Every structure is written in structure tokens, then in C-alpha cells.
Amino acid sequence: MEENCIFCKIARGEIPSATLYEDEEFRVILDLGPASKGHALVIPKIHAANLFELPDETAAKALVIAKKVATQLKEGLQADGLNVVQNNGAAAGQTVDHFHIHLIPRYENDTVNVKWVPGTLGEADKEDILKLFR
Ligand code: 5GP
Ligand code: ZN
Which helix (H) or strand (E) holds 21? Predict the structure, then answer.
């Protein structure tokens, strides 16, 4: 638990939230600034700032819970699709430094924007990256 972390307080129930799911290790809540109807956040009760700090076991459970709630949202709201988004670092759009997974139901012709302009994979970049994994 980090003292000034809002998601620690929400996850542990110290700040009330619209909760869709809760167990000993996680809480799933509705986002207060939803990108679309049903936008939810999967939040572990332990504090990890981001994916890189998250214990493997928590990471594995998080995706199982994301799948479960995403299925309920998509079916219940009759969404046409659903984005799973997870931001790490301010450069990636992270604004709350407590790991969370966004579940964003998508509807035909909605205004949600989770897009980028595709580039081209150059030979030099490809070699640089492949080298890291050899
Ligand atoms: P990030 O930008 O860090 O990936 O996502 C943070 C998300 O948390 C945003 O979508 C924002 O709307 C949501 N959020 C921030 N503060 C609160 C809060 O106090 N309650 C809830 N339910 N959502 C919050
Ligand atoms: Zn926290």
C-alpha cells in the first residue's frame, strides 16, 4: 500500500467505487472518465506502479480477471468489440501510477480513439531489436 496512491485506496475499499468484481487480490471498477459505456479498470490490491513492477503471479491473474469481466461487459452491453489497454509511463499515457488494465467496450461508430499511424519496419531497427533477444 502506497500512502498517497488513489488506486490503493480504491482497490482496498477505502474510497468507494462502482465495483463490478472483487476478490482478495483485485477490484474491477468503472472508470470515472469513461471512453465508452462500460469502460472498466482491473486494479490489483497490491501496489505496483506499472507492468514492470508487477509480480508474475499477479500479472497472470490480472489477465484472467480481465477476460472474465470483458466477456460480461461485451455480452451484457451488446458491444461490438472491446479494447484491452494498459499504459506504462507518462510517455505511454499513464496518469495513475498504480498498475491497471483498461477494458473499453467498443461500439460501431463510437468516438474512441485507440489508433496509430502504421510505420515501416526498417532493416536497421529490426536488427537492433532482434539483437536484444539473441
Ligand atoms: P491511465 O491514464 O493511468 O492509464 O488511466 C487512469 C484512468 O483512471 C483514467 O481513465 C481515469 O479516468 C481513471 N481515474 C482516475 N482517477 C479515478 C478515480 O478516482 N476513480 C475512477 N473510477 N477512475 C479514475
Ligand atoms: Zn497503489
Answer: strand 19-22
Ligand nearest to the Cα of 49, by number: 2
- Indicate if the pLDDT at residue 1 is higher than 90: no
Element spanning 9, H or E: helix 6-11
Q: Does the pLDDT value for residue 94 go beyond 90?
A: yes
How many residues are listed for the chain in this entry? 134
* Ligand 1 atom with the shortest distance to the CA of 30: 22
CA-proximal residue: ligand 1, atom 12 (nearest) = 33
pLDDT digits (tens, 9 = 90+) for 18-42: 999 999 999 999 999 999 999 999 9
Cα of 39 vs its chain's centroid, Å: 10
Q: Which protein residue's CA is at the shortest distance from atom 17 of ligand 1?
A: 32
Q: Write the CA distances from 64 to 6, 90, 95, 107, integer angstroms.
A: 24, 26, 24, 23
